[in-house]
Amino acid sequence: MTDLVYPLGTGSILNNFELRMSIRSVEKYLTGYDKIYIIGECPDWAQNVVHIPFVEKSTVGDFNIMQKITKACETTEISDDFIFLNDDHYLLAPFTLPEFPYYYMGSLEESYRTRPDGYGRRARNSMNYLKEKGLPTKHFDIHYPIIYNKSLFLQYVTNGPDWSKQHFIIKSLYANSLKIEGEETKDFKRNELPVVGTKVFSSQPHIRANVQRFLLEQFPNMSRYESIGIHKNEKREVVASSI
Question: Is position 185 within any domain?
Answer without folding.
Answer: yes
